Q: What sequence folds into this?
RNA sequence: GGUCUGUUAGCUCAGCUGGAUAGAGUACUUGCCUCCGAAGCAAGGGGUCACAGGUUCGAAUCCUGUACAGACCGCCA
């Protein structure tokens, strides 16, 4: 149910009629013909660019096409008027009944209104967070988590079959570092003095692990060589870290469908198989890379390495997959991991990376392109930094001392709903300022409350209506006489509701969930405006105590707004408020 | 040196597949509370869409170049 595509179908139908009657040459491509809401409401309900885009390919003047089109469209009973305007736009006005009926559609469809078939039958894998299991999630991860989760929700709404996946980097050397750091805490638990040198994790969060380890193994690991305890502690620590990370994600309301372990790729032949796959395509060779230009490579030595010919698939240079000591680089398991995704039959892969990983975009795309022979596309979305503030002052973090702001800190202070919404009020690739105090202000500067308030107002009126003995169940509202919704402000809200399905498709196509947040803000704004008009014009109030029929029509509109706000917040992972406290 | 991202109102930012007079919030001025609490609404001023070319009926949007900002650039993931 999308009014704009409905009207577009009418326009296309008219164009086909014109083709049949010889007013347009056969075989024209109508793909560029759009029907959109005009920016200026005085231009009417909808506008189409048909006459302008077809003028050239048809070899006709825009005006000629426009007039023929008007002749056909005017015959339709749902269309009030069609006018030529500006450089050749057709402004279309449709009968109020069409708008009013939309309210009923929305109410009856509920959370299904605006869902799309654009993703029907398509499987998509969204990989996000994928933080190393070496510590708690921090703010940067939080943004990636929120963005990825909202994008997954959006694609789900748009009809895709979505898998939310976390890649656990538990196979590289960073988990060895973790193990050694835990060992130090273990020694500390036994009363020894320890020093955290460079290349260890000094964070306090490992203290309990050291103590727990002491409780479990006693002094078995004291004065023991690393090879005795490393594997055991590594396993123990990664498991504990992943447990902590899952808890952090749960705090934020993020729940993954799948955790994929890097370690599971080792010793199973998975990496070798993926590399052999590329080798069979003649994309693996031994070679020497040029030194990176620009900065002085002080310790640069030319070395022969095993390389992936990623430059054949759009990368700038070829990339090493094996270190000089014969072990894999991190890139090799990444290739194997994505080979696994390709083999699982996804039509589309999406990875969410922090902006500092921007340099890996091309090689990952090259790998997927090569592995799938161009059949599966990999989209990589980068999330920019989060700059923390408190009362307008920058909030300093230091990795070295281990004093960084964690996801838990943020959620504990401001709550999951606020965190999620605020993080989606910027495009993913733009830096985000996050002020701990500002986001908690319950003011108009805070979009979370603004949207929540609109929903709460809607619910409040419904509760009042019930108290006044007016029935507001869905069936009653759907059967209300919607022709009573004739005021411009009311139709304005409906017009905004009509844009919802269109917005979902745009947001899903561009992979930009922030558009949902901005839309909800606009919808809330329409509702607040209508609400306040009720102060001056009592007939515009939703609740007309002595006129149940009118009340029900108006509350039906309110219900429709609540449905869309609720669905939109649902995509973003935010719970709608029944009332404000 | 190269790659990627960004540059829109004083400030923070939206802007759809290229569409009509480029929009919000904030700040400033001024009004408005019996439908939840004004946590809201209305009105006003504020712009060379970084700059220069190009593509076309039409460019903030696409292409090329320049300037500025950030991220990244072989054995860390």
A:
């Amino acid at each position: 149910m999308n009014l704009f595509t409905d009207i577009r179908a009418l326009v296309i139908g008219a164009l086909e009629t014109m083709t049949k009657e010889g007013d347009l040459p056969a075989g024209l491509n109508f793909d560029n013909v759009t029907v959109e809401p005009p920016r200026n409401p005085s231009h009417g309900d909808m506008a189409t660019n048909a006459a302008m885009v077809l003028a050239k390919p048809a070899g006709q003047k825009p005006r000629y096409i426009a007039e023929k089109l008007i002749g056909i469209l005017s015959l339709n009973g749902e269309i009030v008027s069609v006018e030529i305007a500006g450089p050749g736009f057709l402004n279309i006005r449709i009968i109020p009944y069409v708008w009013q009926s939309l309210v009923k559609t929305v109410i009856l469809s509920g959370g299904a209104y605006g869902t799309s078939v654009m993703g029907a039958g398509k499987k998509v894998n969204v990989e996000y967070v994928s933080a190393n299991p070496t510590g708690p999630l921090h703010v940067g991860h939080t943004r990636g988590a929120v963005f990825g989760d909202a994008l997954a929700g959006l694609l789900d709404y748009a009809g895709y079959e979505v898998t939310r996946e976390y890649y656990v980097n538990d196979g590289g050397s960073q988990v060895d570092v973790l193990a050694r750091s835990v060992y130090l805490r273990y020694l500390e638990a036994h009363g020894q003095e320890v020093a955290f040198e460079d290349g260890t994790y000094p964070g306090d969060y490992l203290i309990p692990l050291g103590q727990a380890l002491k409780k479990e193994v006693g002094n078995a690991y004291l004065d023991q060589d690393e090879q005795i305890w490393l594997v055991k502690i590594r396993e123990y620590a990664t498991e504990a870290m992943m447990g902590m990370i899952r808890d952090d994600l749960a705090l934020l309301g993020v729940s993954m469908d799948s955790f994929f372990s890097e370690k599971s790729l080792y010793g199973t032949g998975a990496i070798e198989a993926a590399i052999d796959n590329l080798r069979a395509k003649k994309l693996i060779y031994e070679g020497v890379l040029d030194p990176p230009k620009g900065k002085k490579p002080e310790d640069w030595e030319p070395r022969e390495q095993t390389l992936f010919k990623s430059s054949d698939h759009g990368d700038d240079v070829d990339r090493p997959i094996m270190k000089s000591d014969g072990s894999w680089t991190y890139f090799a398991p990444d290739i194997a991991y994505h080979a696994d995704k390709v083999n699982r039959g996804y039509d589309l892969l999406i990875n969410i990376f922090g902006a500092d990983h921007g340099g890996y975009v091309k090689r990952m795309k090259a790998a997927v392109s090569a592995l799938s022979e161009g059949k599966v596309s990999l989209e990589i979305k980068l999330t920019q930094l989060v700059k923390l503030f408190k009362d307008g002052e920058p909030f300093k973090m230091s990795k070295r001392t281990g004093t960084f702001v964690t996801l838990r800190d943020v959620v504990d202070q401001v709550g999951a709903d606020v965190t999620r919404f605020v993080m989606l009020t910027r495009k993913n690739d733009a830096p985000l300022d996050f002020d701990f105090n500002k986001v908690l202000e319950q003011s108009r500067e805070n979009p979370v409350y603004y949207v929540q308030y609109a929903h709460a107002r809607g619910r409040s009126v419904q509760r009042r209506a019930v108290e006044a003995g007016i029935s507001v169940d869905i069936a009653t509202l759907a059967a209300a006489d919607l022709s009573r919704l004739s005021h411009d402000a009311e139709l304005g809200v409906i017009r905004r509701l009509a844009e919802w399905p269109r917005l979902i498709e745009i947001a899903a196509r561009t992979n930009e969930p922030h558009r949902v947040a901005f839309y909800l803000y606009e919808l809330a704004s329409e509702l607040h405006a209508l609400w306040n008009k009720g102060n001056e014009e009592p007939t515009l109030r939703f609740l007309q105590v002595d006129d149940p029929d009118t009340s029900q029509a108006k509350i039906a509109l309110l219900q429709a707004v609540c449905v869309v706000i609720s669905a939109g917040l649902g995509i973003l992972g935010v719970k709608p408020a029944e009332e404000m406290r």
Observations:
- Chain A has four domains: 3-94, 123-169+256-383, 174-252, 443-572.
- The mean pLDDT of chain A is 89.
